[in-house]
Amino acid sequence: MHVSKNSKSPPPSFFSTLREKGLRPTKQRNCVFRVINEKQDHPTADDIFVRVRRRLPTISFATVYNCLETLVGCGLVKQVNIDREPARYCSNLNPHAHFKCIKTGKIFDLPLDDLVLSKIASILPRGFNADHFDLSFSGTLTDLN
Amino acid sequence: MHVSKNSKSPPPSFFSTLREKGLRPTKQRNCVFRVINEKQDHPTADDIFVRVRRRLPTISFATVYNCLETLVGCGLVKQVNIDREPARYCSNLNPHAHFKCIKTGKIFDLPLDDLVLSKIASILPRGFNADHFDLSFSGTLTDLN
DNA sequence: GCTGTAAATGGAATTATTCCAATTAAAAAG
DNA sequence: CTTTTTAATTGGAATAATTCCATTTACAGC
After folding, report:
1. How far, in Å, CA of B6 to CA of B9, rounded?
2. What are phi and psi of A32, to 5 degrees?
3. Contact by Cβ (8 Å): A144, A101
4. Residues of A in contact with B1 (CB under 8 A)
5. pLDDT average, residue stretch A52-63
6. Per-residue pLDDT, A77
7. Architecture of domain A96-139 in this structure
């Protein structure tokens, strides 16, 4: 597994990233991308559909799914899968884990520093080449987090 | 998060565990439990249904799901959720992560020692009380793992 | 402005899982 | 050991997230 220097990387350009892959930066893709970046609340495809519809009232559900697939494939957003729940989408591209509060359903990003990342990578035996990993917690929050 | 001593714990008694919770150790539950323990290959509910049917030809799919829910709820088996795929079930009750080979689909258990467990626990900020966590990798295997 | 390709659209299809009402089996009580 | 109570099983229908498909629309290069 590749463990990068953990300095916050600049937000990738929506346009150049798509163009580099020969994909078109359509208004639907752009709108889905912006909606995810506007509010860091880990929306589901459903949530995103509702928000995008306010700006593009004729967009279809299929298109939202298509856009999400494209954006995830390009690395412009991350898909978050926790347990068996509907997928959520996340604009945080820095290495992080997720914590889900089972009382409120709210999801929190937990940044992972290089030390932790290398510790996690060290779990892998020789010959196991991970190109992706997921770490998620669920539990409760004390106080008023 | 609780970090236990990592000595292999004895396999929990199917009967006593259910009894303690006021649940009945039925032949269906027992059969599902045994099927999962016989072959450590992370079967899906579907796989389990097929295997159990060989011994209990009248068991229904709903019952397999009910049994799995019960067994997971009792801590007798673990449910493994990787990405958006059908849930898999696992008899390994010791702390471990999962690695999925994207070529073969095969899933491997990666044991987690106390040092790694405490490092993982250290990610949690104060006030975040995890009662559960999931760590999974996906990638490819070099050689003949 | 044409032409070819990619993307968007709406609706149907899929699939894992859950729900429900009726039946059966197990435990408890007598 | 029979009756009663309660829990579990069953089959089928329902649900819900996601994917598929055929058609239409939009964009890019010529």
Report:
1. 8
2. -60, -45
3. no
4. 137, 139
5. 96
6. 97
7. 2-Layer Sandwich (3.30)
Residues of B with Cβ-Cβ distance to A125 under 8 angstroms: 110
Q: Which residues are paired to B98 by β-bridges?
A: B109, B136
Q: What is the CATH number of domain B14-90?
A: 1.10.10.10
User: Rounded to an integer, what distance in angstroms lies between the CA atom of residue B1 and that of residue B125?
Assistant: 11
SS3 B79: strand
Residues 6-65 of B with CB under 7 A from strand C: 24-27, 44-46, 61-62, 65
pLDDT band at A13 (very low <50, low <70, confident <90, very high): confident
User: Distance, angstroms, CA A71 to C1' C20?
Assistant: 40
Q: Give the β-pairing of A128-141 and B107-111.
A: unpaired
Chain A residues with a Cβ under 8 Å from any Cβ in chain B? 1, 81-84, 87, 97, 99, 108, 110, 112, 116, 119-120, 122-125, 127-143, 145
Give the whole-angstrom CA distance, residue A77 versus residue A70: 9
Extents of the domains making up chain B: 14-90, 96-139
Read off the pLDDT of residues B89-125 as tens digits, 9 standing for 90 and up: 999 999 999 999 998 899 999 999 999 999 999 999 9
Q: Beta carbon of A61 within 7 Å of strand C?
A: yes
